[in-house]
Design a protein that fits this description.
CATH topology: Rossmann fold
Shape: globular
Structural class: alpha/beta
Largest sheet: 9 strands, mixed
Strand content: 15-25%
Order of helices and strands: HHEHEHEHEHEHEHEEEEEHH
Number of helices: 10
Distance between the termini: 10 Å
Number of domains: 1
Strand order of the largest sheet: 2-1-3-4-11-10-9-6-7
């Protein structure tokens, strides 16, 4: 298990390409390819679906995890069972729109759909992660929407035309359910977030609960009803806010700690 874990990590970090090299070059204290001794539950392996954007990589690395990019090349799903076995946590990141055929609707004119490769890969990955494992899952923006759709829910396809208002390229306040895991993580029931989405949860998926809303009623976060699992979807981008709002680190700290605890039980 330790040997497979080492080689999976080394291959994944190398596979992140030039960006990974640049990060390693700027932060010499974190080697490009971790030593075998560093592959332990102290630094859990965190998969990032499809993307190798610097903000996600930094957020995982700087909060104690080892980021592992999961490529969606050709839409191949052949390694998903291996990912479920070896990884300790998963981030579903932001991106374009889920094809609304997933929840029985035709696309709205404003929809900008995921590439077929990313769509097929992420659909299979998140369904497997939710149903076949109890490992921690954090969904960000599109990732939060994926959690809802994969759980049988649907989406508001375009907030401006459906309910009015704008959630793209703005900041706004949110209110959290005081009894939620998310509120406990932040130690707060209200704060400001960034916003860059035009879709949001409509019908809630099975096994989820709404835990945050914006002033206009748009759902801004959901989490599992399973008290023993870390499964949270947030509509904002905490990885972009960390440098200016350090409180957003609390979410990544909690996620990494949940992954570490789960890994320690292997």
């Amino acid at each position: 298990m330790a040997i497979r874990r080492f080689f999976l990590t080394a291959a994944a970090v190398i596979g992140s390409g030039i960006l990974g090299f640049q990060l390693g070059d700027r932060r010499r204290e974190t080697p490009l390819v971790p030593s075998k001794d560093s592959i332990s539950v102290e630094r859990p392996l965190i998969g990032i679906a499809s993307l190798n954007q610097e903000t996600y990589i930094r957020a995982i690395r700087d909060h104690g995890g080892i980021p592992v990019i999961l490529p969606n090349t050709d839409g191949s799903t052949g390694m998903i069972d291996d990912y479920l076995e070896e990884l300790d946590g998963l981030i579903m990141p932001g991106g374009a729109d889920i094809p609304p055929s997933e929840y029985g609707e035709e696309p709205h004119p404003t929809a900008s759909l995921l590439s077929d490769e990313r769509y097929q890969f992420e659909k299979a990955l998140i369904h497997s992660w939710i149903t076949k494992s109890k490992k921690p899952l954090l969904g960000i923006c599109l990732g939060s929407q994926w959690i809802n759709v994969a759980s049988g829910g649907s989406l508001i396809q375009d907030i401006p035309s459906a309910i009015g208002g704008n959630h793209r390229n703005v900041n706004h306040n949110i209110t959290l359910d005081p009894d939620s895991k998310l509120s406990g993580i932040f130690g707060s029931t209200a704060f400001e977030v960034n916003s860059s989405h035009h879709q949001a949860v409509k019908d809630l998926g099975e096994g989820l609960r709404v835990v945050a809303k914006s002033p206009d009623g748009v759902i801004e976060a959901t989490e599992t009803t399973d008290p023993d699992r870390f499964l949270i979807g947030v509509q904002w981008h905490p990885e972009r806010l960390i440098e200016t709002d350090t409180s957003q680190s609390k979410l990544f700290n909690a996620f990494i700690e949940a992954a570490r605890e789960h890994a320690s039980k292997k």
